[in-house]
Amino acid sequence: MFSGIVVHGKALGRQLGFPTANIDCKIKNGTNTTQGVFAVIIKIDKKDYHGAAIVRVNKSVDCEIHILNFSGDLYGKYVEVNLIQKVSEIEKYDSQEELLEKIKHDIEMVKEVFIGRS
């Protein structure tokens, strides 16, 4: 589980049509810090939402989440994030078009995870 405050990022996701919440992550003891793209449940103001998260692990953990079926301003809000299932690895792309296709594919994979859980 991750938790933290939503902070400003570089807004690349927003520019691509998939806005993300960038989390200033605090990791709960025992949390697997494997990097990749995950289906997640994010709790915002005591309400759960499904999302697609990219988790990068370097010296710290960087987590940004595209929240499905959500719009609103989250800056400064405290959120809790549960990793449900890894759907893919992080990859580098030569073009923005390739990255966009990967994002679309990963979001579809995340949706399938939640369909399978219902």
From TrEMBL:
It catalyses: riboflavin + ATP = FMN + ADP + H(+). It is an enzyme of class 2 (transferase). Keywords: ATP-binding, Flavoprotein, FMN, Nucleotide-binding, Transferase. GO terms for biological process: FMN biosynthetic process; riboflavin biosynthetic process. GO terms for molecular function: ATP binding; riboflavin kinase activity. Its EC number is 2.7.1.26. Gene3D superfamilies: Riboflavin kinase-like. InterPro entries: Riboflavin_kinase, Riboflavin_kinase_bac/euk, Riboflavin_kinase_dom_sf. Residues 1-115 form the Riboflavin kinase domain. It comes from the Bacteria. It holds the Pfam family Flavokinase. PANTHER family: RIBOFLAVIN KINASE, RIBOFLAVIN KINASE/FMN ADENYLYLTRANSFERASE. This is riboflavin kinase. It comes from Candidatus Magasanikbacteria bacterium CG10_big_fil_rev_8_21_14_0_10_36_16.
